[in-house]
User: Fold this.
Amino acid sequence: MRDKLTDLSCEAFASELAAKVPAPGGGGAAALAGALAVALCEMAGNFTVGKARYAAVEPDLRRVLAEAEGLRARLVALVEADAHAFEPLAQAYRIPADDPDRTHRIEDALRGACSVPIEIMRACARSLDLLDEMDAKGSRLMRSDVGCGAALAAGALRAAHLTVLVNTTPLPDDPVARDLEAEADDLLARYIPHADALATSVAEAIREEASHG
Assistant:
């Protein structure tokens, strides 16, 4: 039995991702990127709390930190969950083409595989809300890390969206698949501009500070 993906070193996980195995794949990579994004939000908060200059917003920052910690744990867990969700689908595709049960098994497995990437998207979207608040209230010295978090969260959102689509589009007549696809499209449409605006504003602030340095 293989080790848990989340127990692997960074090098070992990257090697596993590169290997000719069904999972981990894009979904697991998206979840990990999302976890790193929200971890950067926590980093910025941890470098801010306790400083007199930010005492007025410390309760807000501690609330953000508590929620971010939960999101990070959730996204790390989704790395493993995505791999487990893909296993029934891989097994279904190995069923002989002339088996009358094959189509039904594949459709059931696709429905199950949809559940993880949409959870990744939801968690990444909320992470962007927290990063936005951290940018507004956290230490100015940590803005670049907040911007990096926004960029990673955007990439994770896009990757998870593709993973939703690859599992929903083979189910054109399934109302649950259509609802999940619509939610995924909505999250992408709302939060990618949000992430891009945050990363851009951070870049502009860095340039502005450098020009006055």
The longest helix spans residues 175-211. The chain has a mean pLDDT of 91. The two ends are 56 Å apart (CA to CA). The chain has one domain: 24-211.
